[in-house]
Specification:
This protein has strands at residues 3-7, 10-13, 18-25, 34-39, 46-51, 58-60, 68-73, 78-83, 92-100, 102-105, 109-114. It is mostly beta strands. Strands 2, 4, 5, 6, 9, 10 and 11 form a seven-stranded mixed β-sheet that branches. Strands 1-3-8-7 form a four-stranded antiparallel β-sheet, with no helix packed on it. A hairpin with a 6-residue loop joins strand 5 and strand 6. It is globular, with a radius of gyration of 13 Å.
Length: 115
């Protein structure tokens, strides 16, 4: 069974930092790309970053580029999202995602940035 478990969310002041983790099980982790999405109240879920398998190449949405960094530790089957210079508009539930025959999602972790 494929499982993704996010952690690391919380309440932080604007300008602060958080590091999210996504622990993955049930797949050969180093063969799959992992994405981070977020969904703010009343808005659609959006892809903010992903990291590919093999070359570990990364992509970022313009809204987080230069502030967020995605990385993976294949020995720990974990993907991280380092979030710096957080803004109130980063407030959302953050989800990690992968595709193995179908899409799999974690349960999400709440990030709240106060102004």
């Amino acid at each position: 069974e494929v499982q993704l478990v996010e952690s690391g969310g919380g309440l932080v002041q604007a300008g602060g930092s958080l590091r999210l983790s996504c622990a993955v099980s049930g797949i050969t982790f180093d063969r799959y790309a992992i994405g981070w999405f977020r969904q703010a109240p009343g808005k659609e879920r959006e892809l903010i970053s992903c990291i590919n398998s093999g070359d570990d190449s990364t992509n970022y949405a313009d809204s987080v580029k230069g502030r967020f960094t995605i990385s993976r530790d294949n020995a720990k089957n974990t993907v991280y999202l380092q979030m710096n210079s957080l803004k109130p508009e980063d407030t959302a539930v953050y989800y990690c995602n992968t595709h193995y025959l179908k899409a799999y999602w974690g349960q999400g972790t709440q990030v709240t940035v106060s102004s």
